[in-house]
Amino acid sequence: MKKTTYYLLAFLALVVSCKTSNELTEVTSASPQNPKNPKANLRTLPAGDPNLDANWDWTNQTWNVYFNNANGTIGSVSTLNPFTDGTQKIFGNTNVSQADMYPAQGWMLVARDFGTPTGANAYPFILLYNKHRGVLRVAILRTYDVLSSFQQITLSFATTASYPKLFKFASTVPDMAGANANNQFTQSALTYAGVQQWMIAEFNLQGYSASMDDFASINVNVSEVVNSSVSLTGSIQLDGSAQPQVGEPGFWGGVKTITSFIAKASEPVSKIVKKPESTFAGLSSAATVLEALFDAVSGFSGGDSGSSYNIKLNGSTTQQGTITLSSPKTSFSVYLKSFNTPAYHALQSIPWGVFDINPIPYTITDYYDNFDHEGNPLGYTNHYFTLDVAPNFVSSVLSVNPSIVNNISQIRAKFVSGNSYLNSVTPFESLSSFESRSYTFNSTDAFFNTVGIGLEFIFNNGSVVYNVIPLH
């Protein structure tokens, strides 16, 4: 069997590793899903710890926190409430009376660790959950790390129990949202905070499960991200020999875009690939010669069994762009249920999730009519869809969290269509009215695979939850 020589392998490795000017390259020092950092939150909360108080008032305008310094000592800081603090980049200057943080708006305290004078972790945190909107808010104090350009907070499920459906509607891809029992298991958010400011992220936990594993828990991971500009220059010189072989055009396709090398062959290219000299006539520039050489390599057809050809490459390479370095800083897990454990856990019974919905039963019939109702030719083709649904076709497959159903003043629905689900087909109406009939759309209104139902929950306090449920 004929094989490529070391030269070809070395050249391929170089081409794959090189980036052209103005491209970005990312280097991640460690996965944020598995931080190996001594600053990870490993603290347990003993009985009587003030951080176990489920009635602690997070709406206070000042938060006093304790944290571990790098040298092992415990430091403290008094910060303004980040939900009204004008220096915070997430919420900014907010009127205290209108701030989005009050229990009357549906917010509940899940867990916190602001430390004590005798025990603390490196990164104090608080988790709040809005039982109406299904939003988990994570706030973590950035203590003494100063090098990051921004921070990334990632929420995932711990693997110690079965996954609940909380993330079911978290996907931003319309064709995926609600299509599976749980179509993703990780959510990430970027945040910007200075030293002794709060890193804040919000996550979608709208999916409701009628039952949940007693030991289900979520993981919170924090990484600091640094962007640096780089400019690299250098030169290359490769000498070797090539044994003709069957070409792989798709394999070499990406190589043809590299034009910063000068290629010279000790044998005419036409002899290597056994094509006439005229095939390569007029190739004067280095870039064009190189492209022709790659065409030649991808066109090797075997040649003589004992033939090999010497090839030399000489030239320079330049790389400009940015390098992104991600450094894990802290990670901790929180049990979703409230029970007696020194580990982080929900401090009270949290009504996790807003709603769940099974596949909606429907039938779509596609029509092309060339005649009107009286049988006269239209002069054009009338294209429309008839969507047939059973009575209560939404409510029969809809499950609302019974803990919050009495807080809902109205459920409304409408049909939406288009690849982005942004084009309205019908106006919002009450769910009972929406479910009372079949529907007919013309070809400009709906498309077979892009018809969805916009479902809106309006709560007594004015909160609104809206999702698009795909029909296909």
UniProtKB/TrEMBL annotation:
PROSITE patterns: PROKAR_LIPOPROTEIN
Superkingdom of origin: Bacteria
First and last residue of the signal peptide: 1-22
Keywords tagged on the record: Signal
The protein, known as: Uncharacterized protein
